[in-house]
Amino acid sequence: MKINFILNGKNVWVETDPLKRLLDVLREDFGLTGVKEGCGEGECGTCTVLIHGKIAYSCIIPVGAADHAEIMTIEGYRKTERYKALQDAFAEAGSVQCGFCTPGFVLAAESLLREDARPGETAIREAISGNLCRCTGYNMIVEGIKIASLKGKGLW
Hints:
Blueprint: E1 2-7, E2 10-15, H1 22-29, E3 48-51, E4 54-57, E5 70-72, H2 74-77, H3 81-93, H4 102-115, H5 121-127, H6 139-151
Parallel strand pairs: 1-5
Antiparallel strand pairs: 1-2, 3-4, 3-5
Helix pairs in contact: 3-6
């Protein structure tokens, strides 16, 4: 089946089984390795992408469901000014250690900040609750998102 969608701002298509996971199509057909498999059950957030600006777990989405969707991966997002603000804030707060979970947290933060440019700690913790980190603990990630919301004035 031919499936069309917008990927990181470009119109693309793929001929594949519509039940193949979006995660596998992004990695295998488009070479986008920023989206990773962790749990394979939509529980850890390492496979996070944005679909129409909202977080989605690509390991549990059949690619057929992405037909005509607008999908953003970390590779596309890192070309934006908002990414730079989050990157700088995460560095300032020491939010990143091994980096495996970082793309998912960054995209979860983007989704939150699109809806609420000045979220409180409770909103931040709720927004990242679908993402797991083994290294940093969550306080530094929450702090990074707070810093981004303050220093990224006008971006969200």
